[in-house]
Write a structure and sequence with these properties.
heterodimer; A: mainly beta; B: alpha+beta; 3 helices
Amino acid sequence: MAVVKSTRTVVIVDGNDISEFCSESGPERGSNSEDVTTYGRNAEVYAGTLLTGAFSASGWYDDDETDGPRAVLDPLVGQTVTIQYRPEGTGSGLPQWTFDAVITKYAESAPVAGHRTWSLETQPSDEWDDTPQS
Amino acid sequence: MNLADVMDEVATVMSGLTRINVHAVPPGSITPPAGIVGYPDSIDFDQTYGRGVDQITDLSIWVVTGKVTDKTARDRVAAWSAGSGPESIKARMQAHTWISCDDLTVTAVTFSTVDIGGQEWLAAEFVATVTGPGRA
């Protein structure tokens, strides 16, 4: 058992490895719940229903016209693509989430005293595959 | 991104200024007007995943212009510290196409006097933020 540095994280969107432009990323898996309380109970009772997910990423803008975040992500807005998320880096047997997601937003920010940044928001769709990397 | 390469390139850009003796490393002695590329406060690794981006924070670039009581020294440091113009260090750094890094931005300049050989000299310290690839 050991802690894992975030810098190992690998993010692949629609087949494009955007890791070297990322400084933040946040996959979330969750579930909705339903109130199934019946008469005679002293407390509310809940049951899980459909799984949910969320995924966002952000980082430093790069002007690479082929691999940069703008070149890769901006054209994908509105499309459903496959995202691969590798929290411990790339390697056989290491964990990976693979899921489809609608790219709902690509944004850029330009603070006057700093570097240009980008951010990505998605709406994951359907179940996530957590099969480790082959 | 290699610190020595960045310091050498900064010195090359500064050498285009009028009448300046440029040193790419802090020298044992100087002859004003002089420019000296000093060391940064830090190199901050891993600004992005996968060794994508490193950042050099507060790279020091010193200039020593002349005797503090000399009007020529004041005029020279004023031109070097201006935000624009042919002798502006910030403008020159900003206009340069960098090879050793992705970007170098001069963020501030402060003024002081330094004692060299018992004489007070007018000096200015420019600080710059440098970003570049972590793997190259």
